[in-house]
Design a protein that fits this description.
The chain is of the alpha/beta class. Helix content is 41%, strand content 21%.
């Protein structure tokens, strides 16, 4: 069996389960998955049809829809644009925003927080070179998306060695992503969000997690054997995901198929 055949079988099994189950769990990364990357992150709106389809899924009422993102949790609602409020895990699992609007933030270890403060000196150097610096409760990220290829090595040189050294003396890890890297406290990740949601929903609930970047891989791994991990990306890459979708057409088709399957389940239960 080819990888493509295995992926198609996994997708078919998921949608068959969605037509029968009493509930479902749909977990989604935001940037690069639901929305294309933008140099200005405030302009990263979902692909056409995505918000409307998610609204239809949530309106049906039996799917728990959760965004799991590296962004601050509070940023998602205004960008996603759904009518229904959406549950969000932000800052790679350090923040949790419920659909009712309650926000909880886990505190990173003090040693990590102290090291992140020290890392601001080199982050300032990178910012002077044109990088965008993103500060979150448990991490510090450098973004170079949109800059010239000549500038990127200068930015990396300004911070990478120093941040790598901080990881050797403090509970931090340096993670690369598409367009930058992030110095992040150890202790929470997207895998923690996925694992928590799976426990809360129960073992008999079909689940899927859609993501695009290397920072989604731990979430894919946490779902192994329990749900479908889906890589959403224009070009395939090595991944722990079970299936691959090209955005936006295949992504939208997946979500529309999810909505139809849950509507079928609702109709069957009503009958």
């Amino acid at each position: 069996m080819t990888d493509r055949q295995a992926a198609e079988q996994s997708l078919a099994a998921l949608f068959a389960a969605l037509e029968e189950a009493r509930g479902a769990l749909l977990m989604l990364d935001y940037d690069g998955t639901l929305a294309p990357f933008r140099v200005d992150p405030a302009q990263a709106r979902p692909y056409p049809g995505i918000a409307e389809t998610l609204d239809a899924i949530m309106q049906e009422g039996s799917t728990r829809v959760v965004v799991i993102t590296g962004r601050r949790a509070a940023e998602i609602a205004s960008l996603l644009g759904t009518r229904a409020p959406t549950e969000v895990w932000g800052s790679h699992g350090w923040e949790r925003l419920t659909a009712s609007g309650a926000l909880s933030i886990e505190r990173a270890p003090q040693g990590a927080l102290d090291a992140l403060i020290a890392a601001n000196v080199s982050a300032d150097r990178a910012q002077r070179l044109g990088a965008r610096i993103e500060r979150k409760p448990s991490s510090l990220a450098v973004h170079w998306r949109g800059l010239t290829q000549e500038r990127v090595p200068q930015i990396r040189a300004a911070v990478e060695d120093e941040w790598t050294g901080l990881c050797m003396t403090a509970p931090l890890t340096l993670l690369h992503f598409d367009g930058g890297f992030e110095l992040r406290a150890i202790g929470r990740s997207k895998a923690d969000a996925v694992a928590t949601l799976l426990r809360e929903c129960g073992a008999d609930i079909p689940a899927a997690f859609l993501g695009d970047d290397l920072t989604d891989e731990d979430g894919f791994a946490a779902l192994h054997g329990r749900g479908l991990a889906v890589l959403v990306r224009a070009e395939q890459r090595p991944s722990a995901a079970d299936a691959w979708l090209r955005p936006p057409e295949e992504l939208l088709a997946f979500l529309q198929r999810w909505q139809r399957a849950r509507a079928q389940s609702s109709s069957s239960r009503g009958a």
